[in-house]
Amino acid sequence: MESAEHLPGDFLRSLKARPLAYDGQSWADGHAYVQSNLMQPAVATASMVMAALAGGVPPEHRRELMMVLGSLTAGEQDDIADLCRDVVRGGTWLLYEEVTSGRDIDAATYAFWMLEEVEEDVERIGFLRNSARENLPSDLN
Q1: Strand partners, 37
Q2: Tens of pLDDT along 90-129?
Q3: Predicted structure pTM score
């Protein structure tokens, strides 16, 4: 198996490049996860993505980053996925901000799905669903 040392560099390069049309893969696919199978660097990747989101990333990259986080928190290896959810749980404000921002419906959808997994306050999720209705697809309303 190839070392994951290249992931931070690949990640930083991806943020400097123009985002590609989504084709189901990203810089993390095949390294932090393969389809729904999480790999060893998944937790570190989740931490890196959350830190980047907190520090600010180009808006056009937020959709892909939310998709990557969604893959990491929903993986089949429950122990690793739980650790990734713990990382995301530490920055739920980033997910709330994404849903309420109105920047990108896809990014908001991934953020909302993750909030449904990590947020313990069910009433808060209901309030978010109602208050950010226009930022979410109709099936989440």
Answers
A1: 34
A2: 999 999 999 999 999 999 999 999 999 999 999 999 999 9
A3: 0.89
3-state helix vs strand vs coil in the chain, percent to 5: 65, 5, 30
Q: With a cut of 80, say whether residue 4 has pLDDT above it.
A: no
User: Contact 15/49 with Cβ under 8 angstroms?
Assistant: no
Position 27, amino acid: W
What one-character-per-residue DSSP string does 11-70 give? HHHHHHSPPPPP-S--TTBTTTEETTEE-TTHHHHHHHHHHHHHH---GGGHHHHHHHHH
Distance in angstroms between the alpha carbons of the first and the last residue of the chain: 43
* 55 CB neighbour count, 10 Å cutoff: 7
